[in-house]
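Q: Here's a chain of 114 amino acids. Please give me its 3D structure as tokens.
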Amino acid sequence: MNVTRNVIGIVMLAMVSTGCSTTHHQGASVVAKEEYTPPTSIYNILDSTALVYSDPAAGSAVNDHPLRWLGFVANTIGQAFDYGINRPMYTLGSGFASLSGYTTEDNMVNAQRR
């Protein structure tokens, strides 16, 4: 059993080490037959807006996600809830901190609101 475990470990180590030993890069002597095609975007690949700037069709209303409009409506409802119910409750709770359980963390969250 111990010998089998050692053999399996050696085989796995050999597979991992040989997988990392090659780079699969073409040598400098190989001339590419394709012409150079510049990237479609000059922005970083990690930039979240790179696809927006490089694909004009993505910004059109036809290709827009249908739930985006639901988000616009839900945001309005959420803002109304925040200003109409949530913020007055925080203000009321801050006046009666011992009765309502209003803590310093609640005060910090309420102070950071715009």
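Q: Can you summarize the key feature?
A: The mean pLDDT is 75.
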